[in-house]
Amino acid sequence: MTGIVLIGGKSKRFGRDKVLITIGHKPLIEHVVDVIQPLFDEIILVGHMRKGLEKYRVVEDIRPGCGPLSGLYTALATIRGDSCFIFAADMPNLNRDFITFMISQLDGHDVVMPIWSKGREPLHAIYHKRILPAAASLIEQNDFRIFSMIDKVDTLFIPEDVISSFGDPLKMFSNINTPYDLDIMASPPSTRP
Questions:
Q1: How far apart are CA 190 and CA 20, in angstroms?
Q2: Residue 192 belongs to some domain of the structure
Q3: What is the structure's pLDDT at 66?
């Protein structure tokens, strides 16, 4: 299985490219890669190359402008193995034990995805290469919603009670969308709202 980090977003709400913003003493992308690195033989960043990412393997979107579905399509078309675990680049609190558990659940499913009270997590999910034609078909129809595909393939949803046994999903799936989110992430836990 290949670890994929999607870096193609435009960071509109953040106001500038957030992939390389510093949290603590390292860029956001390093927080993500440091957690997943021990779990995968190969990690690929999917999106556009920019200064500061030279030490990573970066693959440009095959169909840019189609949102995360384009990143997923590019990942599935690029990987050598049968499946990939897709991560958003702006999730600095990933839980390695939960990721390991999700990998153990693939077992013939097309997709393995967490679902909890805030919704489904398509950018913290495993996708099998056999869904590549379904992703391509959606792009051809100008339907860029990953959920349009999820509903048509064999998807195993990991429920909130299982997720919570590994940690707080609110923390695990938190992402940096705005400068305010960054401020909250950087503040000591006792002062957070």
A1: 26
A2: no
A3: 87
